[in-house]
Automatic annotation (TrEMBL):
Keyword Hydrolase in record: yes
Name recorded for this polypeptide: glutaminase
Protein family per UniProt: Belongs to the glutaminase PdxT/SNO family.
Catalytic activity field: L-glutamine + H2O = L-glutamate + NH4(+)
Taxonomic source organism: Emiliania huxleyi
Amino acid sequence: MVVAALPANLCDSVQAPPTAGPAVGVLALQGGYHEHAVMLSRLGCRVSEVPHLEGLDGLVIPGGESTTMGHLAERLALLEPLRAFVASGRPVLGTCAGLIFLADEVVGQKQGGQKLVGGMDLTVDSFETTLEAADVAPARRVPAVFIRAPAILRTG
């Protein structure tokens, strides 16, 4: 399912017909699609549900959990339509897991593992850092891996 955001007007001072602006979809597989749709609505977009990607001028793929997003997209037969949409050159924004889902390469991914849309010439990796966690390990630094918070290692 795609939630489409259709701008009701092009700017605050010019009233335009509801279909005059670009149609931007928000992929509603899981994660933060509602928040993205709300923000697009606050920006003057008319938000409605559409069953497919046809007719959209752009697409937002919000966060969630990228492996689950891949499984759902495959089960719902959306992987190839999403890949075709990205390959068409229309604007696509991926946030958090959506960025992972759009990356051409994910470091540390098991061979034949996670299903990706790809199409963005990026290499991403999980964000890692060392934390001080006094309650857990007094006087020690603890390595922490945030598996779904992407770090962009390379852009093409």
